[in-house]
């Protein structure tokens, strides 16, 4: 059963590889609009979209873990993290207070209608999508302690 699960996760992850980002516009926590396909399209830059929610403890742990290395990684790898909150109307009021406490350096987008989440067929969070030249080049679902090192190694290969 475990082998089937691993195979399924591998096949579903590879199914997204090399697909273009959808043409979806989201607002930042500062109310600025961003089109995820066109505004994050600098040539050869890596964009790491991390999907998270205020109620998701592994999501917060992942963003905290990446934050510990973010300054070094962004210089070394020409990468940027975009933290996409999938909090809906019931929980979105928790986003700003959490961000104020965390002081993450990331660009935070709000997917309150879950348009981007649906367009990428994301079932649950935490979910990471790496984009290079407008193409999805890597996806990862879930987080466990130390997984940020795996992400870093993957980013170095790209």
Description of the structure:
With 158 residues, the chain is α+β, with helices and mostly antiparallel strands. It has a single domain, classed as Glutaredoxin (3-Layer(aba) Sandwich). The protein is built from 5 helices and 8 strands; from the N terminus they run αββββαβαβαββα. The protein has helices spanning 2-16, 57-77, 95-102, 115-119, 147-157; strands at 19-20, 25-28, 33-35, 46-52, 79-85, 107-110, 127-132, 135-141. An 8-stranded mixed sheet has the order 1-8-7-4-5-6-2-3. α2 (57-77) packs parallel to α5. It is globular, with a radius of gyration of 15 Å. The model is unreliable at 2-17 (pLDDT under 50).
What would you call the shape? globular
- The strand line-up of the biggest sheet is 1-8-7-4-5-6-2-3
Give a short account of the largest sheet. Answer: 8 strands, mixed
The SSE string, one letter per element, is HEEEEHEHEHEEH
SS field, number of helical segments: 5
CATH architecture: 3-Layer(aba) Sandwich
CATH-assigned fold name: Glutaredoxin
Mean pLDDT: 89
Model regions low in confidence, pLDDT < 50 over at least 5 residues: 2-17
Coarse structural class: alpha+beta
Brief summary:
The protein has 158 residues and is of the alpha+beta class. The chain has a single domain, classed as Glutaredoxin (3-Layer(aba) Sandwich).
């Amino acid at each position: 059963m475990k082998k089937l699960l691993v195979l399924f996760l591998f096949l579903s992850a590879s199914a997204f590889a090399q697909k273009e980002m959808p043409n979806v516009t989201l607002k930042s926590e500062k109310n600025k609009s961003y089109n995820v396909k066109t505004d994050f399209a600098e040539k050869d830059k890596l964009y790491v979209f991390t999907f998270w929610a205020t109620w998701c403890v592994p999501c917060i742990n992942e963003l905290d873990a990446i934050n510990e290395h973010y300054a070094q990684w962004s210089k070394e790898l020409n990468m940027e993290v975009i933290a996409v909150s999938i909090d809906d109307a019931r929980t979105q009021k928790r986003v700003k207070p959490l961000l104020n406490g965390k002081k993450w350096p990331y660009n935070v987008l709000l997917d309150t209608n879950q348009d981007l989440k649906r367009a990428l067929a994301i079932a649950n969070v935490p979910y990471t999508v790496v984009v290079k030249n407008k193409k999805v080049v890597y996806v990862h679902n879930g987080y466990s302690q130390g997984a940020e090192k795996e992400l870093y190694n993957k980013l170095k290969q790209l």
